Task: structure prediction
Amino acid sequence: MSNSAIFLVLLFLGILAFLAESTQQAPTFECGRPKFTSRIAGGSESHPGQFPWMAHIQMKSNIDGLLFTCGGTLISDRHVLTAAHCVQNENDLRNRIVNITLGAHDINNDDGHHQKFVWNRIVFYSNWNVESDVAIVTLSRPVNFTDYVQPACLPFEDDLDHVNDSVVLTGWGQHDSSGSFSSVLRQTETTIISSFGTDGQCQQAAGIGNFSGDNVVCSDGSQGHRFHYGDDGGPMNFYNAECGRWFVLGVAGRGNSFDDGINGPNIFTRVQAHLEFIQNHTRVSSLADCSSTTNGTEPTTTTGPTTSTTQKITTTSTEKTTTSTTTASTTDQPVTFSCAGKPNGNYPNPASSCSSTFYTCSNGNAYLFNCASNLVYREEIGVCDWPSNVAGCY
Result:
């Protein structure tokens, strides 16, 4: 065989190899378009992959060690939307996120679709309330999009109020009078009711005082069509038939116990009211129209802290910083510290030689504590002291 013939054969084989590799690349997914769908029944178990943007957030109390659950919504390859009241205590160390699971149906039975993450950054409004009970959790690494892990769509900027539209509430919260959390993802269908103004139908029925319907979206909670304790932070899912997509209209507020007898409205923070906040901290925006392929997402692959034009980020503390429109509280994962091989006792925070925080090791577990106001940790005596007494602090 001539050299030219050999070259052509090798070139042909190279092209085939390139095409094969290209066709094996991970598929991309459009927001709000799950592969699996099913008829919805009130309070029923969902089907695997039916709501592939659902995030299960496992929390643990640092006070009594009890585990509890919140929900969340995947909106990009790195960001989960949840409630501020679920994650705010990462700041004061009362609670901590154990893990975040995507792709789950039965949270206790990994069918091969689960993807587990820890968090890299948490952002929420410093003085949040029922109108702004929303937080953004940045995952430690990008997700692997599959049929069971996909993002939901953010609402349009000029979205309607959706009064009388049907929505679906989803979560792993309490589902019976025993008070136990559901191991499988459950769903219930309900209808949006008016929260117009500050004293509308929802406000009057909720009995928690006035709030603006521009920032809150409510649904009928009668006849058991409610979210419960453990469903906090989960999405209000709306299917837009014109677009053929699912949108996250709201973030669930505080859930009530299953058997508390409350039949008031379900109260969600309205996502549309916080699109600018979300975009500022995620670079994720809502669809331009139904024909758009996905949320307006710029890829984010960095795993460390970054500095933007609107917010100063540090790796060791929570800072309240003013943007053009809001004040946000941001928590970043601290510099890695491990109690492995260390005896019980206090240890300096390795993130700074002059720190107002310190670690306590107890049976291999690390706990981060704050010194009293105006004090810093002094390593040589193992307690907090005045900065003038600590080398490097004066």
Notes: The chain is about 10% helix and 30% strand. The CA atoms of residues 195 and 202 lie 5 Å apart.
